[in-house]
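Moderator note: this is an archived Q&A kept for reference. The question asked for a predicted structure of one protein chain; the sequence and the answer are reproduced below.
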Amino acid sequence: MRKRTAAVFLAPFVLLFAGFFVTPILYALAQSFTVVERSGLLGLRGQSTRFAGLANYGKALSDPGFVDSLGRILLYAAIMVPLMVVGSTVLALILEAGMARWPRFFRTSFFLPYGIPGVIASIMWGFLYAPGTSPFTPVLSAFGIEIDLLGPGTVFWSVMNIVVWLFVGYNMLVVVAQLQSIPRTLYEAARIDGAGRWGIAWRVQIPLLRPALVLITVFTIIGSLQLFNEPLVLLPVSGGLSTTYTPTLTAYHDAFNGNDMALAAAESIILALVTAVLSFGFLRFVGRGRR
């Protein structure tokens, strides 16, 4: 009876998970091993699909644009992950330590950007970055700093700023939730032993934040490698972005502009494998450290 009850409650999730997560992945995997051949003038005589083996994967990995986008997104993730983890942890510790007035107000303020869709946030920051409308450019010019925030040398950091602004508040709340689960008796014992705020943070709070830090690290790894909205929105107004700036942009361009769904599927599978290796590799490394 209990097993039947559990099955009834699990069935909707299993069906939705299989239909909207597992099935698209399997379809993309199958599509990545095919190639579409068209015949006749402009392909008007019809098309046929045949098995292509690993041809699409070889084509993707031999494309300099796609390979460069993989390297660029790995560099982006290498910077974003520690920046996001450290930033959200520091904000959470400051607010929970009572070092800021009105902690609830600031907690809500930091979280609010997360409620703004990424596309809307990118459009807003696009106006803030554009030379003709940016409030930052005149201020920097007053100090003798001439910089194009959407130029080839700076757009990487401009995109990163948007992502940090969007998600640091969400990750901060994850850390805050973990902080609030720490027994207050541990703080009292630390104070009796002579520990100050820094000592409590370093020796009591941070070690007990491990589950939250692992969680936001995995989230940030996955989110960083899937970067798409921000560069796509800024692409028309930035000379430093291209249709192959990130792997997701490359797959999007090949699918809908190049009309090569099989190649886009192969590129997506490659990115998924890289994401899985890094995520599970990190979890395995962390799990090994606990033994």
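Archived answer notes: The beta strands are 34-38, 47-51.
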